[in-house]
Design a protein that fits this description.
Shape: globular
Number of domains: 2
Number of strands: 10
Strand order of the largest sheet: 3-2-1-4-5
Structural class: alpha/beta
Helix content: 40-55%
Number of helices: 10
CATH architecture of the largest domain: 2-Layer Sandwich
CATH topology of the largest domain: Nucleotidyltransferase, domain 5
Order of helices and strands: EEEHHEHEHEEEHHHHEHEH
Largest sheet: 5 strands, mixed
CATH superfamily of the largest domain: ATPase, nucleotide binding domain
Radius of gyration: 20 Å
Strand content: 15-25%
């Protein structure tokens, strides 16, 4: 089964043709990073307008690379939640129009489910059930993936997401958007034990995260040092802050895994490209865990991951008609 999938939840206009949820036939991503870099972050109105301008060309190029036309496609899929509402609406309405004109079934796909499904493309042997740590700019979840379309949230952030904390810390250090990538690069050159940061805990919810305190701690350290005229070693600061975030993520993730009896662990989301998180994941293999994470090209937003999850949503009977609408927020459950 070949699915043409569309992604437009933030600042990437993407499409892909995926076969049976596991094989990428073609994938195209048009990014807006350079434009949003001018403003230090994503401007929703600009993102929506750029999606309108790019989506037709991206879909046409995706079909051309797949050496087919719409007649060789069996179903359409689109990200409909969560994300920037204007951006989502561009993709949803384009897919609805294409479905209406071709008669192809339309499959609505949850953005975070797609990030998890990126692993199915990279690891053909991976099947549920497993425990997944989903980390991105807007989300930090521990998700029990019971089946391809049955998921349960075990833990979540109570405030900022890990990716948001990375980006805001990097911005305070003067790094350009997207800051988390630059912070990760600088951290590779620093001493992770040079600075100490608080270890956040959420009382009565041992699997939940809280990153607002960590974010505030690093921002205050930078501002206070600047006011006193003291120089900070930026690489050491980045490494220490990255370690504090990684400790929080993996402490809770492993606690949940051990309590629930999971040995099969998965990382997903844009922040799963972080070098330290990947090293932590690799180290778990020596402790008897079976660990998976996507290649870096599938960590960020892309159409391929949408098509992977769409295949299993279709098998479960999850299709939509012209009543489909976008939603800025929606639980993965």
């Amino acid at each position: 089964m070949k699915i043409l999938s569309i992604e437009s939840s933030c600042d990437e206009t993407a499409a892909a043709v995926i076969e049976d949820g596991r094989r990428i036939i073609s994938s195209v991503v048009a990014t807006q990073v350079e434009e949003h870099k001018l403003y230090g972050g994503v401007v929703p109105e600009i993102a929506s307008r750029r999606h309108c301008e790019a989506i037709n060309g991206v879909v046409e190029e995706t079909l051309a690379r797949a050496e087919t036309d719409i007649g060789g496609i069996d179903a359409l899929a689109v990200t409909y939640a969560p994300g920037l509402i204007g951006a989502l609406l561009v993709g949803v309405n384009f897919a609805k129009g294409l479905s209406l004109s071709t008669g192809l079934p339309l499959i609505p796909v949850h953005h975070l489910r797609s990030h998890i499904a990126a692993n199915y493309l990279a690891h053909p042997q991976l099947e549920p059930p497993f425990l997944c740590l989903v980390v991105s700019g807007g989300h930090s979840h521990i998700v029990e993936v019971q089946d391809y379309t049955r998921m349960k949230i075990i833990g979540r952030t109570r405030d900022d997401a890990a990716g948001e904390a990375f980006d805001k810390a990097a911005r305070t250090m003067g790094m350009s958007y997207p800051g988390g990538i630059h912070l990760d690069e600088a951290a590779e050159l620093g001493d992770e034990n040079a600075y100490r940061f608080p270890k956040p805990k959420v009382s009565s919810s041992p699997y939940d995260f809280s990153f607002s305190g960590l974010k505030t701690a690093v921002i205050n350290l930078i501002h206070n040092s600047g006011q006193r005229g003291e120089a900070l070693e930026v690489n050491d600061l980045c490494a220490s802050f990255r370690k504090a975030v990684a400790d929080s993520l993996f402490d809770n993730f492993l606690l949940a895994a051990n309590d629930l009896g999971y040995k099969k662990l998965v990382l997903a989301g844009g922040v799963s490209a972080n070098r330290l998180l990947r090293r932590r994941a690799d180290a778990l293999c020596a402790e008897g865990y079976e660990v998976y994470y996507p290649p870096k090209e599938l960590c960020g937003d892309n159409g391929a991951m949408v098509g992977a999850q769409a295949y299993y949503e279709y098998l479960a009977g999850n299709t939509a008609g012209m009543e489909l609408n976008a939603a800025a927020t929606m639980s993965i459950e």
